[in-house]
Design brief:
The chain has one domain. The longest helix is centred in the middle third of the chain and has 35 residues. It is mostly helical and 308 residues long. The protein contains 15 helices and no strands. Helices cover 76% and strands 0% of the residues. The chain is globular, with a radius of gyration of 28 Å.
């Protein structure tokens, strides 16, 4: 872990320093992070064209609609796997490039495959556990669902940094994820809530900006719901797909950077507490003078020398 202690994101953070570090790192590494994210966004946008939203909207029979959605399981799985792969590449670059300038985009792509399969397995486990947590959250109404999602997101953010710093053993990764996520639990949950809200606000603002060239179609839909088909056509417009990919590339690196901050903050706190609680052998050593009664002070009334 010594080599990672020199990482620019490795330190004890407050919420202010966490946001500041995130922004500084994002600016410093913007070009490579944007390139990786842009390639990812284009692939995701292209893969999403295989899912015909317009056709689903025309189906009124619930049974036929479910059958149609089921037919899109393969494209959805491909999109999910590609998303996880590029997330692994981004995370690898963010963790290793500041420590080794030879870590390029290309080497990050190659080396990230070492972590991808264990990461995929853990994500399947997390998705299963997450679905149970959400169902339990539904029983506790809206607050329970929101808390369950935040908790799953917190666990998710710890996974890749732990794997890339501490090893790819799946069992160890899961146990370390739970341990670090529950260390300063409410702080972690609070920080994740802040970053989720921040990303939602940014996404809404940026989505509004890319809708500006297509405002006419959007307004027509609001005034006449029968024109909803025009919005579906807009989402397959090449210009819209390109703009969406570019805008998505601006926000995609933020979550992996924040995941590093969350992990390194937990590790720094853990190591600091170990140093504080570590016993000092010099203080615990028994000395010869400890075996005898301590002499009286010169001015002590019971001092034998004074009485004489």
């Amino acid at each position: 872990m010594d080599q990672f202690s020199s990482h620019p994101l490795y330190r004890r953070h407050s919420i202010d320093s966490a946001m500041s570090s995130l922004w500084e790192f994002y600016k410093k590494k913007f070009i490579p992070l944007f390139i990786i994210s842009l390639v990812m966004s284009f692939i995701m946008q292209y893969a999403s064209t295989f899912i015909d939203i317009k056709e689903i909207q025309t189906i009124t029979d619930p049974r036929l609609m479910l059958e149609k959605i089921a037919s899109y399981i393969v494209p959805i799985l491909i999109i999910s796997i590609v998303n996880l792969l590029f997330t692994t590449i981004l995370q690898y670059y963010i963790i290793n490039n500041p420590l080794n300038s030879e870590t390029s985009i290309f080497s990050s792509v190659i080396n990230s495959f070492k972590y991808f399969i264990p990461y995929l397995i853990i994500m399947v486990i997390l998705a299963f556990a997450g679905s149970i947590a959400v169902v339990l959250g539904i029983l506790a109404l809206v607050v329970g669902v929101f808390f369950s999602l935040l908790y799953i997101m917190t666990l998710y953010l710890f996974i890749l940094p732990i794997m890339m710093v501490e090893g790819t053993n799946i069992g160890d990764t899961i146990s370390r994820t739970i341990k670090l996520a529950h260390r300063n639990f409410w702080t972690n949950i609070g920080w994740v809530a802040v970053i989720v809200i921040l990303l939602l606000v940014l996404s809404i603002i940026l989505s509004g900006i890319i809708l500006l060239p297509f405002t006419g179609n959007f307004i027509k839909t609001l005034t006449n719901p029968e024109n909803a088909k025009s919005v579906a056509d807009m989402t397959t417009n090449p210009a819209y797909l390109i703009l969406s990919a570019i805008v998505g590339s601006l926000t995609l690196p933020l979550l992996p950077i924040f995941a590093c901050i969350l992990y390194f903050n937990a590790r720094a706190g853990e190591e600091q507490s170990q140093i504080i609680t570590q016993p000092n052998p010099e203080n615990d050593r028994v000395r010869v003078e400890d075996l005898y009664a301590k002499p009286y002070a010169d001015d002590h009334p019971d001092n034998p020398e004074k009485k004489s």
